[in-house]
Amino acid sequence: MLKIQILVVLLLLSTVVHGGIIKKPPAATEKVRYDNFKVFNLKISNKIQLAVVEMFKSLEKSYDIWKEYDSSSKEVHVMVNPTILKYFEKLIKLFGFESELMISNVQDLIDAEVATTRADDGATFGWTRYYELHEIETWLDGILAAYPDVTQEFIIGSSYENRPIRGIKISHKPGNPVIFIESNIHAREWITSATATWFINELLTSTVAAVRDLAENYDWHIIPVFNVDGFAYSHSTDRMWRKTRQPVTTSACIGTDANRNFDSHWMENNGASDNPCSETYAGTAPFSEPEAKALADHLTNIKDEIKIYLSFHSYGQYLLSPYGHVASDFPPNYDDLLEIGNAFSSAINNLQYQTSYAVGSTATVLYVASGSSVDWVYNMLDVKIGYTIEYRDRGRFGFVLPPVQIIPNCEELMAGMLALVGKSKELGYV
Length: 430
Prior knowledge:
Layout: H1 2-19, E1 38-43, H2 47-56, E2 63-67, E3 75-80, H3 85-94, E4 98-103, H4 106-119, H5 133-146, E5 151-158, E6 164-170, E7 178-183, H6 190-205, H7 209-216, E8 219-223, H8 228-236, H9 290-301, E9 306-314, E10 318-321, H10 334-349, E11 358-361, H11 362-366, H12 373-381, E12 385-391, H13 406-426
Parallel strand pairs: 7-8, 7-9, 9-12, 10-11
Antiparallel strand pairs: 1-3, 1-4, 2-3, 5-6, 6-8, 10-12
Helix pairs in contact: 1-3, 6-13, 10-13
């Protein structure tokens, strides 16, 4: 076993030496490109293969884990730098990985997004393309102006780069239970803010009776773009950027995974990384990120009003409940969380798209993730209905979901939301 581990280390070190860096620092007007970067699906069949994949995480210059190993699918999705492709292929052959090429050129998907945006330039704000932060904020200003009687802006605080983190409250009458939605905590997950803005629009404009009931009998607090700095950077410079933008004093790497930065079992059970260059870096301490601290403070001030908390993510098609920090323990109301989650999943699967969502705790269905917003709200604020929603797809497009899928994804959310809220009410949570 030791010889195998040494062999893995040597082989991976050769990858670093020959592979160079995953991308060069861009010039001021230059975007990071992902020409010929490929995404592979690796099937994990033994502990040695899993150990090899774990070592990829320390080699962020050559690999980017898009989807970490989960016990249900036993798959890992990894983006590979083209300069080290031949070494990667040797590695997976040596250790007997079953692999599938999912994306042959990441830049092609990014270019297709850009082409869609250019074709749609000048059109009214809609859901046929993805929008930049300033466009979403301009749209939000228009919504607040158009519906002053039932909408109100709230700002939870400022980001590291001093951008306001804006939300909208939709309320038709006092005393309604609050459903809080936080979206785009991970910058590259553009489908999340697109879905959040669509959902806001539906709550205000839909004439469907069930949607009107949802809109008028609950107060909705929605942050369309939470990681404002990272989101702006993902548009201006690096489409694959995930983290915040606060520098780390001990490293040249920038940013923290804000969804590992909350003070709930922070850094426990290998549920986050202490490597500042990792995509799951948890920060120097809980709430080291001003964005996470601002959200926690805001939520604490209204904790008695919140009945349901939702965090929008992509990708993988999961509805994930607490706990994220441990797979061997479950919340006291886990059976209810599963029942509500299954209602959500069934409602989506019954639509014409027949999209399938897996349901369960984060740590059992996906992977161990400590310090998340949903777990913090559940554990510290006693909000007993909380989920992370991982939207489309399952890896064919990954984080670069084509704009043509925005509306179908939104329709699935609405069907799922009606079922989720309805079942939560039936079980006495709202």
